[in-house]
Write a structure and sequence with these properties.
It holds the Pfam family TetR_C_3. The chain has about 220 residues and is mostly helical. It has eleven helices and no strands.
């Protein structure tokens, strides 16, 4: 009988990796709690419980509820910034805007609670992140407007308002997260399948790109 094969020893998780894992669990729990209860209704205890952590551990990472809330908002915004990378070096609007729609729809599929937190905050007048809207978001929007205007000036798409095109893109792609319950209800009570998400992305791209004469 052959001797049992020696199993490789499991290396202990590094402190940095353990911290990153804990922070990820906290942010995921915070997104869910803030999305369901809002900033006013959420408590650090609720978030700690959902993350499976003692409340003291949660305060070690985030001293206050507002600090954690701002981090959640910043996290979803940075994910959106990554999605906008399709704009920066795209040769034409079909590639740039089409890629942006794909990325934003995928974010709505993977991070619905983060989008809901952002939407709720803005609908209530952005009492916590107004400074963020007036700085980071404004600068980002102005940069994307400049790219779209460049395509317009080059005759690559219809001469429409870049600003209102962006508003339309945000409203359409984020609808699938912010109104996910409605979408699921109208889908027979079932979440969209992978194929249905692809159909949604293709449909949104086709309608918008044809509408701006970039298809």
């Amino acid at each position: 009988m052959a001797p049992p094969t020696a199993q490789p020893e499991k290396r202990p998780q590094s402190r940095q990796a353990a911290r990153a894992q804990t922070e990820s669990a906290i942010l995921t729990a915070a997104q869910t709690v803030f999305a369901e209860a809002g900033f006013g209704g959420a408590t650090m205890q609720m978030i700690a419980d959902l993350a499976g952590l003692p409340k003291a551990n949660l305060h070690y990472y985030y001293a206050t509820k507002e600090d954690l809330y701002r981090h959640v908002v910043q996290d979803i915004f940075e994910i959106w910034l990554d999605a906008a990378a399709s704009f920066d070096h795209a040769p034409d609007p079909a590639t740039g805007i089409g890629g942006y729609i794909d990325a934003k729809m995928e974010i709505s599929r993977r991070h619905p609670n983060g989008s809901k937190v952002w939407a709720s905050e803005v609908m209530h007048g952005a009492p916590v992140i107004q400074d963020y809207l007036e700085s980071t978001l404004r600068d980002w929007t102005d940069g994307r407007i400049a790219v779209i205007q460049k395509w317009i000036d080059a005759g690559q798409m219809a001469p429409i308002s870049p600003r209102h095109l962006l508003y339309m893109l945000w409203a359409t792609t984020q609808h699938y997260a912010d109104f996910g319950h409605q979408v699921q209800t109208l889908n027979g009570g079932k979440p969209l399948s992978k194929a249905e998400w692809q159909t949604a992305k293709d449909t949104v791209k086709q309608i918008i790109l044809r509408g701006i004469r970039a298809a």
